TrEMBL record:
GO terms for cellular component: membrane. Its main location: membrane. Belongs to the ROH1 family. It comes from Cicer arietinum (Chickpea). Pfam families: ROH1-like. It comes from the Eukaryota. This is Protein BPS1, chloroplastic-like. The gene is LOC101496821. It is a single-pass membrane protein. It is found in: Membrane. Keywords: Membrane, Transmembrane, Transmembrane helix. Transmembrane segments: none annotated.
Length: 357
């Protein structure tokens, strides 16, 4: 799959059709109990996707929305871990290649989490020149105004800089798209349930991560347009969400905004208003000018505080997703060790019986 290059692309997520349809185990009957488990998972996924639908376009790529998206991913990945436990699917049934692919996918997700965390840390470092600028704007003197101008320029340069680790995320996401066509679990109804659930998890994960990658990199070319088949109950909710979010992000980039992040854009808007004022000098003896300056500085302080708080909450959300992926890996590893121990004991028992006979 190639990335979208035009403003309104329509690229298929699956160039050769739905891989799940091709890979679904044949001859495996899904009992009413298993069907109920799968339906419950998909109903929950659909509800989560609907909760991510912004009430207005202004909410798109606000830090609060992004934090909600990360929370949604955590919950979905945790649900899959619970599903694996509930299915009691023996690890011995899992094809070795399937396990290898799973660990490769989780490694890529951990790499993406680390890249997002590094970018949030870098953006947070921009708080220092911003706070110093606000400190210099409190006492009114031309010397401190000049210093404040320099600090505001430093903030803008820092925020505009590119993070090489974020630039690599698009390559990692391409790799994730390539792993959607998972090897099938051998002729197993439980395996079919797991495969279909994993497909939904992958779609939500790739979508959210591609949105984050585009936002952090400052390029709409990082967005992925996923074409999901209508056979899943959560498909309508996903298509509506993807269409609204991707379209709005492309509009913002095409309009030349400083940042697609609402909170960053809010800070920059105040900086643009404040900088010419203090650069030209403020008559501190003029009551009107002084009150106007104080009001603008107060607005900048509030916007900066909101940005800082939003970044901190989002960083915690990314860390939560990182921990959820790690927990899933640990669950599978524990199952593998347990399965190997059981097999070794059975093998040892058989050998003992042969020796007796």
């Amino acid at each position: 799959m190639s990335r979208s290059q035009d403003p309104h692309p329509s690229r298929s997520f699956f160039p050769f059709g739905n891989p799940f349809r091709m890979k679904a185990p044949k001859g495996s009957h899904m009992s009413p109990q298993l069907l109920a488990v799968l339906q419950a998972f998909e109903v929950t996924l659909a509800e989560r996707l609907r909760k991510l639908m912004p009430k207005s376009k202004d909410e798109i790529l606000s830090l609060s929305w992004m934090t909600l998206a990360m929370k949604s991913l955590c919950e979905t990945h945790n649900d899959v871990r619970t599903l694996i436990t509930d299915l009691e699917l023996p690890v011995s049934v899992w094809d070795e290649k399937w396990v290898d692919v799973y660990f490769d996918i989780s490694t890529k997700l951990l790499d993406i989490c680390n890249a997002f965390s590094s970018e949030l840390s870098r953006l947070n470092q921009g708080n220092l020149p911003l706070k110093c600028a606000l400190h210099n704007l409190n006492p009114a003197s031309s010397k401190q105004f000049h210093r404040a101008c320099t600090l505001l320029d430093d903030w803008r340069r820092h925020i505009s800089a590119k993070n090489p680790r974020i630039e690599k995320c698009s390559t990692i996401l391409d790799g994730l798209v390539g792993t959607l066509d998972l090897p099938k679990v051998k002729n197993s109804a439980k395996g079919k349930v797991l495969m279909q659930a994993m497909y939904g998890v992958k779609v939500e994960t790739v979508f959210v991560c591609s949105v984050f990658s585009a936002a952090f990199s400052g390029s709409s070319k990082k967005l992925l347009d996923l074409d999901v088949a209508d056979m899943y109950s959560w498909t309508p909710a996903f298509k509506s969400l993807q269409s609204l979010v991707n379209e709005e992000i492309r509009v913002r980039f095409s309009s030349g905004k400083f940042s697609v992040f609402s909170e960053l854009e809010a800070v920059d808007a105040v900086v643009k208003e404040l900088r010419p004022t203090i650069q030209g000098g403020v008559d501190t003896e003029d009551k009107v000018e002084k009150e106007l300056l104080l009001k603008t500085v107060e607005e900048l302080g509030m916007a900066a505080e909101k940005l800082s708080l939003g970044m901190d909450l989002l960083a915690k959300g990314v860390d939560g997703f990182f921990q959820a992926v790690l927990a899933s890996r640990d669950t599978l590893l524990s199952s593998l060790r347990f399965d190997k121990t059981v097999n070794d004991r059975v093998l040892g028992r058989n050998i003992d019986q042969q020796l007796v006979h």
